[in-house]
Every structure is written in C-alpha cells, then in structure tokens.
C-alpha cells in the first residue's frame, strides 16, 4: 500500500512539474492567421456524452456493489447511502463551477491554458484506460467500499453518517474525473456545446440506474464497460490529436507535414491532421491503451490458463443482489 502511494506521489509530482514548465514556458513564433483545427460540434457533444456515460456507469456499478447486501432489516439503510450519492452529485456540480473559476483566473495564459488542460486530461485518461490500473480499481476500490460498509454496520453509533459518507465516496470520485476531462472540451467548444453532451450522458446513466435499481434488470455490465471503454479510447485519441496540434501552435512541438494531404473532415471529426508529430502522438496513445489490455489479459488470464492454473477473476458486474 505504501509503495503504491509513493508511486502515485511521484507521478503527481512529475505531472505538477510538467504543468509548471508549461505555465512558464515561452511560446515559439506562431502565425495568428493560420487556421487552427477544431473539433466539430457533433464530435464535442459525442465525446462529452461518452465521458459522462462511462463514468456514470462505473459509479452505478460501485453504488450497486455497496448496496447489494443491504437487504431485509438493513434495507432501510440504503437511504443514507443514496443521500450520500446525491450529495456527491451536488458536490460534482459545485466542483465544476470552482474549476471554471480557476480557469477564468488563468485566462491570461491564453492558448497555453488549452494545452495544459488537454495535457492533464490525457494524462489522467491514460491512467484510467490502463487495464492494470482498472483491474486494481475494481478489485481494491470496490473491496475497500465493502470493508467500509461492514465497519459502518458494526458500529453502535454514527451509522447514518458513515453510510452517507460511503455513498458520497462511491460517486464523487467518478464525478471529479468527469469535471476534469470536460475542461479541455469546454475551452475548445464552449460550455453550451459540452452541456449538450453532458445531458445525453446523464440521460443514459439515468436509464441504466432505473433498470438496475428500480426495475431490477440484470444488464450486460461487462459488455457495456468494454464498449464504453473502446469509445473512451477513441475520445482519448481524438483529444491527443487536438492537444498535440495546440503544442505545435505554441512552438512546443515541431510540425513536419505528411507527404500527402489529409481531408479536412478528419480534423473536424477525429482531430487527425497532416503532420507526423500529431499522428505519432495519437498512435502512441492508442498503443498504450491496447498494449496494456493485451499484457493484462496475458498476465491475468492466458498465462495462468496455459500453466493449468485458475485465471484471475475479471472485473465484472456487481454481486447478484445488486440487480
């Protein structure tokens, strides 16, 4: 546990150092008349919706796992957990406004602000999309909530406060990630466009929540996670292309044209531009995601199976009582 915390601290320190360098770095000669690539309106809406729905789906699965065993005499204790989740949603909205205020204060950074927010979002997305981290997330993060729930139920007092805190922590982490990921899109396309995608993503999340908790349908959660994971990987690649282009505009990344023309619609829809550097950055992001999945499958499933052992349990749907 301590070793993992040390690695997280080192990673955060490196990220903070890189961001500090970007804040103070000088920009190279840029042509203000040069057309800067921007995602289309539909692409920003789609990307925002995917981010919200993906994180919302994970929040639902964690919440379902936490409340699965609160049955019979303990069924009434689901209400404080649900109240905590509601507080977490409100806290997420508040976090959005706080981050917006910070970005407004940092507006004098100009194009550097867009580069910094894009870089941070990509760094966190790469962690979220890393299958090793994701497996740890499901096995330890949900397990921690189970242990916390048992401790709360064993207490003689302050049970309600503990259950509220449990509901809060099961949802707010996903909400904070949503706020973080959406900032780069908001700087590019504006709040109104991003909120359209947020509304679509929330509608999808609400539909899954109704099916899970009210209608008690067992959904193909693993397939949904895989599908939304693929879509989130596409969002990552798109965001990487746009951020790399911003780096080129600032003179932080060289710009070497491809020997052939790239259709304009590829830039508008997928942030694919006609330079070696932007393509290389996008390929690197895709390789990191796909490579981590292949390696995780080999280490956790295929290698034990070949050796005649029992494959590691995959992260999957919540316990049977959740749905």
Structural account:
The protein has 323 residues and is mainly alpha-helical. It has one domain. Helix content is 75%, strand content 0%.
Condensed summary:
This protein has 323 residues and is mainly α. It is built from ten helices and no strands.
Key phrases:
single chain; 75% helix; mainly alpha
| SSE pattern | HHHHHHHHHH
Q: Judging from the principal axes of the Cα atoms, what is the shape? A: globular
The oligomeric state of the chains shown is single chain
Q: Low-confidence parts lasting 5 or more residues at pLDDT below 50? A: 31-35, 314-323
Q: What about the largest sheet?
A: none
Number of strands: 0
Query: In terms of structural class, how would the helical and strand content be classed?
Result: mainly alpha
Task: Compute the number of structural domains.
Answer: 1
Number of helices: 10
Which range best describes the helical content: under 10%, 10-25%, 25-40%, 40-55%, 55-70% or over 70%?
over 70%
Would you tell me the overall average pLDDT?
Answer: 82
Through-space gap between termini = 32 Å
Q: Could you tell me the strand content as a percent range?
A: under 5%
Structural Rg: 21 Å
